Amino acid sequence: MSAAGQTIVEPAPLSHARVLKIAVPVVISNATAPLLGIVDTAVVGQIGDPVPIGAVGLGAVILTSVYWAFGFLRMGTVGLAAQALGARDGAEVAALLTRVLMIGAGAGLALILLQVPLFAAALWLSPASEEVEALVSTYLSIRVFSAPAAIAIYGITGWLIAQERTGAVLALQVLQNGLNIALSAFLVLGLDLGVAGVAWGTFVAEWSGLALGLWLCRRAFAVPAWRDWERVFDKVKLWRMAAVNVDILIRSLLLLAGFTSFLFLASDFGDVTLAANQVLIQFVYVTAHALDGFAFAAEALVGQAMGARAAARLRRAAILTSIWGLGVCTLMALMFLTAGGVFIDLMTTAEGVRAAARDYLPWMVAGPLAGWASWMLDGIFIGATRTRDMRNMMAVSFAGYVVMVALLVPVWGNHGLWAALVGFFVLRGVTLAFRYPALERAAA
Question: Cβ distance 255 to 432 under 8 Å?
Fold first, then answer.
């Protein structure tokens, strides 16, 4: 029994089957995610005017970028909730859910209040025609009112993953995306609401997703701990949560800076090379999505082991999830080696871009294997909430990436740029591996 009075079920033994039970729903969920953008684009594409297509695309990018900044809420919540679960502290698990819901509500309200200057700045950074900007403003002015729901869902998702309830995460994703697709099609094609119809569809879907998320968390609301305000506002717990989330945010910003600078630097080599790099970077994103399930499994299992102060179990969790991660990365590398040209041809019909992408394809074959350690160690360190190490090692790796760019690009051009990016992956893995023994010592 936990301090809150509810029973915490004893977890199953650590096994490959348990890892797969956590990972597979996440892999399926990630595979369905791109459908939403495809359908939204296709729906407004039926209007026969390029302006709505551009408006929906630009508006979605702006909000996705804003919401991305709150991605720390999912990652930080997984580690903290998993550790509370491992320590058999059910009261803290419930109180943590209340905290993340309050953060979602507060952050969402702030976005609503600051929407005018925020979206004006976004459009200033990404200027478009007056017609497109007018429709983007309509789209954003509707969708921003579901910001509290969208941000809170990050926290709920992390809370569910910590308890290995990735089937519930999949259900949440399917309902939200499915409802979004159906409503967008009905409101745009049936009621002729255009861009506003797409925005309203997403608005309803995000609030519906929050409602389902709260229902999936209903057991936490059946005990008094979720509204134990002394515990919810415990200064030590709040400070730790803030420190974890700030570290993750800084780490994520440095990672984003690496990828963003890669695309910016590629523009110096001409439109064809830039387009080829844009095509090939999708291979990296696909690999990361495929690996997410096992990284999430590492977050949950390592977090629980850390909370239980079970170093041997933590090591086993790290090894089992990493074995599966290595298998996925090897499979992706072989797939890119044998069918990379086919994928390139599916993504572009421009012969010059196809030829250039094939020249740099070997870097994509190397990419999954070079990035395996960094992606899996990210999950391991998130579960252990060793976020200061994540932040510091990312800073070291980013500095190394900058040095590699300065040294290799002038000599090897775009090949040097790809070498620097792949080297960035390797550095992240090596630096985190250097800190791994300290993580095990902390668990012991």
Answer: no
